[in-house]
Amino acid sequence: MKSSADDIIRVVVDALEQRASARGETVRVLGSVRALVANDEAEIAVDYLINTVNSFRLALRQGEYDRLVSAAVRLDYADCLTDFDRQVLVPDDEDE
To answer: Model-level pTM greater than 0.70?
Structure first.
């Protein structure tokens, strides 16, 4: 179950990095999120990822957010999602 949460976090980070790269941007802090997952700190990674999305105003697609919610619930760490800024949430089909 934990590995599934790890995989979800990695997939969301990959998508955010790819979209940033397509715009010619690099968000190096996303590498820190990936490192937290690799170091068995997935709970902290979810919190850090939400904080990063909010701070850098990274557009998060609805499906990605839903997957993060699923990961947080699996980790019994859904409380961290209360800080999520819904203004960065975009529909799945919207290009950023």
So the answer is: yes
φ, ψ of residue 24 to 5 degrees: the values are 80, 20
Q: Please write the tens of the pLDDT for every residue from 84-93.
A: 999 999 998 8
Classify residue 55 as exposed, middle or buried by CB count within 10 Å of its CB (0-12, 13-18, 19+): exposed
E strand or H helix at 14: helix 2-22
Q: What are the pLDDT digits (tens) for 42-83?
A: 999 999 999 999 999 999 999 999 999 999 999 998 888 888
CA 15 → CA 3, 58, 76, 79, 82, distances in Å? 18, 11, 24, 23, 22
Task: Return d(Cα 52, Cα 34) in angstroms, integer.
Answer: 12
Cβ(50)–Cβ(65) below 8 Å: no
